[in-house]
Amino acid sequence: MLKDSQLLDELEAHAFSPAGEAMCLYGDPAYPLRIHLQGPFKETPITEEMEDFNHAMSSVRTSVEWVFGDVIGSFKFLDFKKKP
User: Fold this and answer.
1) How far apart are CA 37 and CA 60, in angstroms?
2) What pLDDT score does 13 carry?
3) Which structural domain, as residue segments, surrounds residue 23?
4) What are the φ and ψ backbone dihedral angles of 4, each rounded to 5 degrees?
5) Who's near 65: CB < 8 A, 6+ residues apart?
6) pTM for the complete prediction?
7) 18-28: string of b/e by CB count within 10 Å (b at 16+)?
8) Are residues 34 and 49 in the same domain?
9) Looking at the structure, do residues 30 and 54 belong to the same domain, yes or no?
């Protein structure tokens, strides 16, 4: 789905701050790491700073997942898992 969306191509073309710095999205650990698509630190050993970052970002991701749950609850036809 990520490949079909062409999201990475769009990010590479347009995801820069006015100062020219790359901006990124934070995604699920399953997504490939790119300059514009980041995820949690997975390497070991993990430093305290890495662990703090992972924890902070996990909390944000959890709240986003709640919103997805609300949308799916309101629009059942979007729930691909429950389709026959």
Assistant:
1) 16
2) 95
3) 1-39
4) -65, -30
5) none
6) 0.62
7) eeeeeeeeebe
8) no
9) no
